[in-house]
Amino acid sequence: MVIAAVTRPADRWRRALSRLDRARGVRALVAFGLSVGLVTAGAGIHNGVFAAMGCYVDAYGARDPYPRRGPLLVVLSAGFAVAFLAGSLAAGQVWAMVGVLSLFAAGATLLVGALHLSGPGSYFVVLVAALTAFLPPVGIADTAVRMGFLLFGAAVSWLTIMSGWIPRPHGPEDGAVAAALRSVAAYAQAAAVADRGEGPAAARREAYQAVHGGWSAVQDSRGLRGGALPPRLLELYALMLRLETVLDAVTDAAEREDGRVPADWAPALREAAAAVAGGRVPRRWPSVVDAEAAGAAPPLPGRGTALPPDLLRAARGLWPRPLPTGDRVRAELGDVLSPASPAPFLALRVGLAVAAGTALGALLPLLHPAWVALGAAAALQGAAQQPVRRSWGRLTGTVAGAALTAVVCHFFEPGVRATVVTATVVHAAARAVPAGAMFTRMLLNTPVALLLVAAVLPAGTSVAELALYRMLDLGLGLAVGLTAAVLLPRVPVRRVCEAVSRAVAAAGAAVGSRLRTGAVDPGVEGVAWRRMDDLWTVHASVPAEELRPTGTADRLWPTVLAVRRLLVPRLLGGGPRPPSPADGARVGAYLERAALAARRGLPGSPGVRSALPERPPVVLAGHGPDLHRRLEALRRALRGDEPAGRPGT
After folding, report:
1. Quick check: 159 pLDDT over 90?
2. Are the C-beta atoms of residues 639 and 604 closer than 8 Å to each other?
3. pTM score, two decimals?
């Protein structure tokens, strides 16, 4: 017992250390230390702060593949520069500052969300604009010099962020696909031992989320314009195609009373995940004989082998299906203003909250009023948590970080060199912390901000006083953000319903075409998967915008899963053989009626239940029992008959 009490904290520390992104921390250490150190040595700490602002580009793109990450971070760096210029020009004019900061907050929220760039939304764009807007006004020449230092910091950060491309050009994709393999392995293991009455619902959801992330990484690796298919990307694409078959088979087995998941599937998938994470080709794969017994697709080439040559040749012919073809960036920017997109309302709310925070910061006697605007922006974005939890984590982390900084600086007043070194080390540690650890991240970010701001404030301002204002200003800003979350519109229910309807209708077009022709239309299939991705985004956005849990996301999840399972390609060579062309028309018409019904309310609402067709086409029960069963699952999900914890959800 004593040994267990001693080893338990050690195990927790080991698990926490294993989650650290050490490579990202090292890159942040090099970029921040090099840019801020060089500028400080040559032009003083006052200008070193502007280089540090440029280094905040490293908060973005950590999970994005390099072909997409590089151009988008260049665009973001240019956005930093424009925000810096606009904030500098508006400095000293309260209402100009309100307009500029709210415009940049809303525009950056819309753009970063539309491009799915990983990171804290528009937060650091607002930071750059707010810090410069609240500085004393300077001439255009001084503004240009300061902007040059900011761009220098951004350029150094860009180089370090992209440096991983040299040793591991497909490292982000490897990590995403490996995570998908591990999650499906955990799902397979849970399904093999779980009680059939409930099913491994949590493992299932995590598996589908990880597989969705794997497909997103493979798609993003095409870059902004696409191009030739690299050999490593072809391998990852083929693995994702095979993983879809395994995931579908595990779900089938978990849903059926007589279903079973072979015991060797989970170890084989974990072994494949370890190989992919190391950049290698996996050798082992779940056996196709067992796959047939568990209800998977007909046998794939290469028994027990992950990537035989004939599979790679087949995958090359399928690329990029089921991923959408064409210019993805143009499609994303167009979809952001579609009737099903939550982005405009979220951007409007962030912009108005920042406007209110900016006005309060300018009118109240605060020491560093920019923190009010930043707090308002932070309360509404930056983590996949509800605003109250997000704000509480930020506030408690800031209080702890400010108190720690004040105590340390009470006994030790750092000079310029110590300030740069300390800020560099702590900034790097903050970047290594997982994104979900909000308290720890704020605990580390707060000393960096305090040290840099204290270094450029007039003499006589103590770090303790600055820390107190930091807590007060951020608390006021978070209160403004939470007030905006109450008073301003969240994701409207009609947009959620429209996203469901569009996804169901697109799935109907894809499945109907597949049944009528016996082949897959890449254009129709691509639209269906893009609508599925839109629905996934809406499902993820809802809980992150609610002040208190409403269960909306849980009500949506069975529908999200049911629609997605209609799109799973059962054969590498094409869709299922059609029972008859007439059946394709029946299925398409049935799903079109279901899509119209979905517009009447959230799944389970009386309007949807009354408008849904009674049953899927009866003829499919004999000719296509698997498809009939999936259509029944969609009907139950839209009716609200299947809560998230039941099999089939």
Report:
1. yes
2. yes
3. 0.89
